[in-house]
Amino acid sequence: MTEAQQTTLVLGGTGRTGSLLAKRLLERGRNARTAARHGADVPFDWDDPATHADALRGVDSLYLVTPVMRVSYADQVAAFLDLAEAAGVRHVTYLSTYGADDVPPQIDIKAVEADLTARAAITHSVVRPAWVMQNFAAAHLPVINEAITVPTGSGTEAFVDAADIAAVAAETLLVPEVHDGALYAPTGPQALTVAEVADIITAVTGQPVTHQDLDPEAWIGGAVAAGIVPADYAVMLRWLTGTIITGHGSTPNDDIEKVTGQKPTTFREFARRNAHAWTATAAV
């Protein structure tokens, strides 16, 4: 298969990192086939195996995004990777999570990493990003009544731009032989509290924003009761927020610059680029 014929299947191809990754790959001359339940190049549904073979046809590499809002999926992903190997996929880049070594055993993040490591027929790279900056400009952590409500206490996190995650993933897919077995943890250049994030949004937009902290179990219970997340996903929310509350949130590193040659985006740069997300909300 020549370079011009190589095709990467991008799962979650309409999502935050997937859509940006597909664009980067196309700009670099690589065929990128986006896959998602709706709006992508090909339909793909983790719960509909009939969509899997068609998505993999003619593909030699894969951006693996596991089922969202779930904690148990290792068997499902393993079956798909078996199919991918048989279809000719020779490299997989897996979107994991920062701190995956400490993930609770109920969550299958680490199990998927172990599965990839055990496969001799394919190379792999693992990308473990910190919390994504886009959370603050979307429905995940919206500004409501001039506040970002999330139980993170005074802990810090090196929030990272999804575009920087996509840039790292792109390099692993374009030159997989260089990144075989690599584990990267993309972070932003600053460890910030959510209160400091709110201050930056205020400074950039002129709209007053604060951080409203609250009891973690009340927040998680409210998300489950409202149907925002399924009940078994509570363990994931408890782990994600707990790492920050206890002072074990992500810390800045140089993985983005090391892999891409570019410095990571600061939160202030991200806020300037996305100011409309908060000013539009305030105007409603």
Written description of the protein model:
With 284 residues, the protein is α/β, with parallel strands linked by helices. The chain has eleven helices and ten strands. The chain has helices at 16-27, 52-56, 74-87, 109-118, 162-174, 194-205, 216-225, 234-245, 255-260, 267-273, 275-283; strands at residues 7-11, 31-36, 42-43, 61-64, 91-95, 123-127, 143-144, 147-149, 183-184, 210-212. Helix 6 (194-205) packs across helix 10. It is globular, with a radius of gyration of 19 Å. The mean pLDDT is 95.
Keywords:
284 residues; alpha/beta; 7-stranded parallel beta sheet; 3-stranded mixed beta sheet; 11 helices; globular
Topology readout:
Blueprint (H helix, E strand, L loop, with lengths): L6 E5 L4 H12 L3 E6 L5 E2 L8 H5 L4 E4 L9 H14 L3 E5 L13 H10 L4 E5 L15 E2 L2 E3 L12 H13 L8 E2 L9 H12 L4 E3 L3 H10 L8 H12 L9 H6 L6 H7 L1 H9 L1
Parallel strand pairs: 1-2, 1-4, 2-3, 4-5, 5-6, 6-9, 8-10
Antiparallel strand pairs: 7-8
Which regions contain 5 or more consecutive residues with pLDDT less than 50?
A: none
If strands are numbered along the chain, what order do they take across the biggest sheet?
Answer: 3-2-1-4-5-6-9
Distance between the first and last residues' Cα: 52 Å
Structural class: alpha/beta
Number of DSSP E strands = 10
**What letter string, H or E per element, gives the SSE order?**
EHEEHEHEHEEEHEHEHHHHH
Distinct helical segment count: 11
* Oligomeric state, counting identical vs distinct chains: single chain
Which radius of gyration do the C-alpha atoms yield?
19 Å
> DSSP strand (E) fraction?
5-15%
* Mean of pLDDT: 95
Largest sheet: 7 strands, parallel
